[in-house]
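Schema walk-through. Below, the input block comes first and the output block second. Nothing else is stored per chain. Lengths vary across the set, and this one has 379 residues.
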Amino acid sequence: MNKLYNIQSNITSGFRDFLIHNVPNLRKTQINFIPSLMFGMINSESCASYDIAKSLKDELKWAQFDSVVKRINRFWNNNLFNEKIFFNNVITSIIDNYKSKHSNNKVHITFDHMFSHDNYTIFMMTMRIGTQGIPIYFDCFNGNNTDAFKIDTIIDGINAVDNLFKGKNFDLIFLADRWFSSTEILKHIDSLGHTYCVRLKGNIHVFKDNKKFLAKKLKHRKYHAVVHNDVYITDKRFKTNIVYSNSLNTSTPWIIVSNKDLEHAILNYSYRFGSIEFVFKNQKSNGFNLNKISNMSIHSFTNMYSIICTCIVYLTILGCDYSKNSNCYRNVNITTHKFRKGIKKRIMSLFNTGLTLFKVAFNSYHYIRLPFTFKLYDV
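--- output ---
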């Protein structure tokens, strides 16, 4: 008789072992049910309770379908589950075992807002892995809540990330778009000893050589970056540096403000889009269909969102493992790269690689390795 590998009970057991060893103070019911939620969410590629329940075959052996849906909804509404502590413990265990493959130990952290229709606003911080990223911090708000955009909200996120990497030999580089050029944010990142590369709006006032003018009027050259050292921005006269780049690949010039490593400011900032926009896409149309959710309370939404982020982290780690340890996956062949004009190009993201590997391995007649150590490789 043919044997099935990676059945639901094997996968949930792997998730459960990780939670037991790395997420303290979880209740027994949570330890038993969160792995099933993660499996159902990944297998159904959805965060809707109805879709998740349809994937939980083991649970349906002992309960009616509607009972499983109700159990999922009860977990989303559970006041005894602290989603931020849970996710922070997951990320802390991953960062503690992370080793950069680059000798300079640079780690790019991107922050931005995401909107789910007009129902929820999420402030997200991600860590770049390759040309993509993984979520490492989030804060959810109901509707277009102005609290999501307050300086204190953003600084709380920066402090949380700083604590994640405290005591580790990493050079944190914070990346953000034009809406985060507040001098309070820049000053706080600098005070922590980290690097910032933030894009400026062209209409921000710059003071240089006792002259005041708009940032877009700074001296620049076509197709070449120009560095302006020791300038002051805004009427608060915040001292910093600006790199002005007008390249072929941008529709509008990049005006990047940075406190360190100006030589690589443009390269550093170029990682911003992939490291966070891919994560947003994975939560929505490319992964878990977050846009299906519209009428949850903010508490239920945040509980659910923590599980989505955990699943994204796991699948991205799985994609990294497939790329790093390809010899361990001889029973499956996933085309992740193609050669174009002699140059090797990735055509499948790390997240999609992990998701594809998971779906192929589930209930497979061939043994396909599915690790559950959550060990993150830099690729």
